[in-house]
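Crash report, auto-generated. Payload:
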Amino acid sequence: MINSAALTDLIIKMADDELIQGHRNSEWTGLGPVMEEDIAFSSMAQDKIGHAWALYRILYEDLGGRHPDAFAFLRPEKEFKSSHLVEMPNGEYDFSLMRHFLFDQAEAIRYESLQDSSYEPLRLLSKKVKGELKYHTLHANAWIMQLSQAGEESYNRMQQALNYAFALAAGIFEPSQEYEEVLIADKVYPGEKVLYQRWLDRVYPVLVKASLNLPEISDIVPVYGGRQGIHTPYLQPLLKEMSEVFNLDTEASW
Amino acid sequence: MSSQTITIAAVYESLAHVMDPEIPVLSVVELGMITGVTLDTAAVHIKMIPTFAACPAVGYIQHNIKTVLENELGIAVNVEVDKQEHWHSNRMTAAAREKLEAFGIAPPKVLTGEVSTEIMMEVPCPHCGSGQTYLRSPFGSTLCRAIHFCKACGQVFEQFKPLE
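Recovered output after restart:
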């Protein structure tokens, strides 16, 4: 029997990252710099929120959790387990793209590792999501290459975005203080430390190809806290906006 | 018609009348969305899967299946999402690929392994057949489509994405 509190913790942090990143992606709808990019971020928003919903659904159906809508929209901020990376405002396109690249490569690594999970619902979902994420990483890799080779200003901005986003992205891999060992022992997933290493190995060649300089890894201080319910000042306003319609009538049938 | 006289084949025949809301030339059977049909004395039970996990049309398709089948077969119909199976583009029938192409959407290549970057990017034009095309964006008007451009005939076209 797999420890259900540990599973719940893992699934909430994965789902909250998907939901919040999905919401941030949706903020580009109507504002993308070119039509294709507007559509791309809108589509990725839809994918992310769909994946969050599927994860909340596992909590609801298999682990005694609340209904996905109520869980997503009615929870207080401190009960969210999203990483600080996804909470950050979109800023300019350089940061949005760099975050998209670092986040989606991390997602791809995570879902690939779940192909062998001992927990069936995650294993089944990961097979579905893994294929879909290929389009996200294809998009991200293409734009990292494109903008890093588009002249001095563009290159400098991508490098700055990388310098800024890297420690935040490393924070995705914040190990659970309580459950990390049990999840690894139960073979649910290989653990954050292993995923972090795989992620570095995955993003490095793309960044090298784009001639971007990876910050010195040993100097990186990952931005932790999100998984423990400690958040940036940007999360609360996002939650308020995201749940505004839902909260007009929480019992409404859509 | 009572359930005793309904056959699995008749159910599939009826399912062939349920078209995809986003690609109206293809039925849910041709798209490979149906994973199981069972019959008991009181009802028909259909198991189906969405093409993409976040497909917003799933509820609508489930409703369409139920309505069409109940109307044509005169028996209660249950439709549920099959969690054991996931959709991949090889589930699409050969006839479906041809219909897609005739509809102006490039069909997904038949996969022999995982989806590679080349498979995502190298797509012949459904209008003129030229291979001189490039990927404009891996995201299109629906989650299951990408946007390409044909340099030979100068047209933008959509592709139904290959999915493993």
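Post-recovery validation: Residues 96 and 150 of chain B are 22 Å apart (CA to CA).
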